[in-house]
Amino acid sequence: MALDKPSLAAKLKVLCAEVISDEARLSVYESDGLTAKRQLPGIVVLPETIDEVRSIARLCHEQEVPLVVRGAGTGLSGGAMPHSEGVLMVMAKFNRILEVDQSSLTAVVQPGVTNLNISEAVSDLGLYYAPDPSSQIACTIGGNVAENSGGVHCLKYGLTVHNIQSLKIVLADGEILRVGGQSFDSPGLDFLSLLHGSEGMLGVVVEVTVKLLPKPPAVAVLMAAFSSIEDAANAVSAVIAAGILPAGLEMMDKLAIEAAEAFVGAGYPTGAKALLLCELDGCDEELSTLVDEVRGVLKKHGAFEISVATEESERLRLWQGRKAAFPAVGRLAPDYYCMDGTIPRRELASMLNRISEMSAEYNLQVANVFHAGDGNLHPLILYDANDDDQVRRAEKFGSDILLLCIEKGGTITGEHGVGVEKINEMCVQFSDKELALFHRIKKAFDEKGILNPGKGIPTLSRCAEFGAMHVHVGDEKFGDLERY
Amino acid sequence: MTNLVTSVDQFAELVRTAIASNQALTICGGGTRPFPGDSKASIELHMSGYAGVVDYRPEELVVRARSGTRLTDLKTLLGAEGQMLVSDPPVHGKTSTIGGLIATGVSGSRRPYAGAIRDAVLGVSLLLQDATQAEFGGQVMKNVAGYDVSRLVCGSFGMLGPILDVSLKVAPKPEMEASVSLECSPMRAKEIIEKLTRRVSGISASCYLEGQLRLRFSGSETAVTKEISGQGGESIGNGFWAELDNQTLASLVATKDLWRLSTDPSEPFSEERFPIADWGFGQRWLLDPEVNPRDSYGGVGHWTRVRRSEAAFSAETFHPLSPLQMRLMRRVKSAFDSEGLFNPGCMYPGL
């Protein structure tokens, strides 16, 4: 249904001070971090209060207009890609930390507060908020809830869902739902879990109570260099099997190491085929024993060079290469496509080898920088977006990686979400009956289907079409048409 | 009608029979925690025959087990590999099952310090209302494909369908655990706990009863030894925590009508009212009240009637919800179970 923009914009202006409907300003919001998928929104609104959010939702609900919510737009799966005939609600003005409670170790924050801001605001109290997605300097806590974001530290400290105490949600019809509370559990079904990772399709997050943790008194980072991917992958499993739970356990392959080293000079051994960064934390008494133990395991599995950093500046230097790895790899080619599958740890070596074979088959370079401890891969496929054939090959390569993740007993997305990007692969990971149940859950919360339509869960007819396309690889008709 | 089921086909057959004969299905685990449901005629679905560990690889920190698997068996299996279930889940009897644990979503004494059993759920297989099997989540640590049905099922008391199997993240056992008991006022006990949670201290359990604060510490030998000697007080055995979690402490065994208050730990506390408080005062136990505490207690939190006596007053098991919450629960229930087949009324009447 075509949107009567002037009429809707006029109605929205009554409800909310900032309404954008001219094309030049709308273009700012045409994509999130997945820039390959672009769409001008119908209208953009930037509400400032929960009441404004409620009335906007009510209006959209009444007029059956799609409502897409956006945090900072750093998401990598197109979850916040606008709808051409809908309203894009930007939560940027919800940027205040409302309360920090030192006794319950919680903070009440608005959804537009950035992830890093929370940790910075409580840092002087010796506290922090544990989940740390790589975009933490920009991404918002509301977006983190919508995607159930992870990060380097979730191996030990859990995902967003494990670190949120309660939420205030505006439902599609404008009603306010509170989930969770100040106690350790709540009566009724666990909607707190259900809302995490629901990609803005079940409700709008308007307030978040996060759990805070005391900063560990002692931290060490081990860097270990390996002459093969297999050795490094086996070392990852061996560390976990030894009963050690590192705060972070990250892997980089040769291409990523070289790119990072050339970019920031973190002191990585460029002759290595694989590098592990292992962060350990705890109290002073136990840390040195732990470091020795991990050093022993890494050595046993073939690490030819191990260095340990305990001073903060040294640790930051080691992490710097990892944190700059994406932009560093970005310098190797005009564009890169970041994938996000998870597999059981034991499959790491065979998976990485297969990716390297596929890289040769597709004639596209790939760098791997990822959360090895969680088995969460981030292959970065290098390509040139101005070359249609490379674009097509990159997308196919990415899709093949995701399908391989399913085959290995894993999942098509560990932390970036499905959005519009992985909607086809959902048809492979889930049966029609499972997808139908997802649609019924969606309907239970949002009967008219106005919240973020077309994202996250594919329609069954789309899956039928994808199944057919899948069979006829290479001769897909109308390949540039959007299909939901 | 009672049915011990050992295969998915048999489950499916019973679901079809229930639909055809307009009966409900009452899903039972080991039968150690009975919760009464609506009085609709029903077929009993005993999950305890559908047992066994499907997959366990210690180095992956993941176990996948059929719902009828006994908790004691699972704990033994994990223990042999130096691992354990997250949160010290209670074992109410030797027939208690993992499916029952997930359906009730109950956590033990480690809950405030190491997360709830729900936090450890990675995936479930469910039997849907059309008698087919569906899988949600999986066996990997991070997974955001589709809605998080597996954690939603945790604590749903069977209302969304029978759990066929569950995949859980497990935890390495700490190198050492030790417990102490300190004589102090509740006020002082709260201060001690708050100080311990304000830093990395290794605290892994806390309970206030009989004028004493009991604490457990977990971690490396050096760290635990240091914490314990810093606390003073008397050393006690770690066995206390299982007695608390499994409700085998003498006072709890003797209780006929047992109520649990889950509340903000900072909520004012009265020893006279609550003989036992654990979870850093976030979980408080009321033994044999004379009137419904939901009416008599003015503070914050939600009550669960964990055990009921016939003679006592009538009251629902779970705390009343807002009309909006009930409406959403009803709609989600119907998304899974439009015919009202599974455990009707077990959680809330009419649901």
Describe this structure in words.
The complex is a heterodimer of chains A (484) and B (351). Chain A is α+β, with helices and mostly antiparallel strands. Chain A contains 17 helices and 20 strands. In chain A, the strands form 5 sheets. A 7-stranded antiparallel beta sheet of chain A has the order 15-12-14-13-18-20-16, with helices on both faces. In chain A, strands 5-6-10-8-9 form a 5-stranded antiparallel beta sheet. The longest helix of chain A has 20 residues. In chain B, the strands form 3 sheets. In chain B, strands 13-10-12-11-15-16-14-17 form an 8-stranded antiparallel beta sheet. In chain B, strands 4, 5, 6, 7, 8 and 9 form a 6-stranded antiparallel beta sheet that branches. A 3-stranded parallel beta sheet of chain B has the order 1-3-2, with helices on one face. Chain B contains 12 helices and 17 strands. With 351 residues, chain B is α+β, with helices and mostly antiparallel strands. Chain B folds into 3 domains: 126 residues, Uridine Diphospho-n-acetylenolpyruvylglucosamine Reductase, domain 3 (2-Layer Sandwich), CATH 3.30.465; 70 residues, Alpha-Beta Plaits; 58 residues, no CATH class. The interface between A and B is large, with 88 and 81 residues.
Biggest interface in this structure?
Answer: A-B, 88 and 81 residues
- The first-to-last residue Cα distance of chain A is 16 Å
Largest sheet of chain A: 7 strands, antiparallel
Q: Provide the spatial order of strands within the biggest beta sheet of chain B.
A: 13-10-12-11-15-16-14-17
How much helicity do the residues of chain B have? 25-40%
What's the helix-strand series of chain B?
EHEEEEHEHHHEEHEEHEEHEHHEEEHEH
Quaternary state of this entry equals heterodimer
